Amino acid sequence: MTVLKSMLFDGARKRSHTIVLAHGAGAHMDSRFMTLFAQSLADAGLCVGRFEFPYMQRRRAEGTKRPPDRAPKLLEAWAEVIDTVRSGMPKDGKLIIGGKSMGGRIASMVADEQAVEGLVCLGYPFHPPGKPEKTRTDHLVSLKTPTLIVQGTRDTLGGQEAVQGYTLSKSIALHWLEDGDHSFKPRKKSGRTEEQNLSEGISEVAGFVKGI
């Protein structure tokens, strides 16, 4: 099953900067979170692509819940998407890849090899749920691709206090959303709203991408 059949695009295809976003482990590419980011970034002047990994396509087609494919299949899907998107871009166009949680993590694993111009991770899963000792940061130490990670300060997969103790590449910029969880939602008592955090996150991503 090809991932390309499932691609959605927001914004004109021939814009100078194209960003392709992959979904997280449990939600489709047209979830509220993914749709909001894609449409808002397109409104900011970017071409924004979205796709679904093969396991998520099967979920949609069969109406059953499947776990994510293993990393090699996810990496292969990203490579296929990058090749195809590049073929439709202007010769001097800039390609940025990334996504929500798992989608951004897998993108970070191919970014250097694929020589993309930038990487954006929306809620990076620095460790599995409840297992802070099993960090997913080895490849982030030597990452060369200019990277923006937008993260909630109380993300249970990597909050601000924990992440500040990690060794990360100098190519990685972290933007913290106040009191945000893994989907950037703050608690009412924080005085912040989910809309504020989402808007701030979108603005940071748009500025980062346009600056490449």
CATH architecture: 3-Layer(aba) Sandwich
Order of strands across the main sheet = 1-3-2-4-5-6-7
Mean pLDDT: 95
Q: Tell me what portion of residues adopts beta-strand conformation.
A: 15-25%
Inertia-based shape: globular
How many domains, in number, for the residues?
Answer: 1
Order of helices and strands: EEHEHHEHEEHEH
Describe it.
- The chain is of the alpha/beta class and 212 residues long.
- It has a single domain, classed as 3-Layer(aba) Sandwich (Rossmann fold), CATH 3.40.50.1820.
- It has 6 helices and 7 strands, in the order ββαβααβαββαβα.
- Strand 4, helix 4 and strand 5 form a beta-alpha-beta unit.
- The longest helix is centred in the middle third of the chain and has 17 residues.
- The N and C termini lie far apart (33 Å).
- The model has no long low-confidence stretch (mean pLDDT 95).
Task: Map the helices and strands.
Blueprint: E1 8-10, E2 17-22, H1 32-43, E3 47-51, H2 54-62, H3 71-87, E4 94-100, H4 102-114, E5 118-122, E6 147-152, H5 160-163, E7 172-177, H6 194-210
Parallel strand pairs: 2-3, 2-4, 4-5, 5-6, 6-7
Antiparallel strand pairs: 1-3
Helix pairs in contact: 3-4
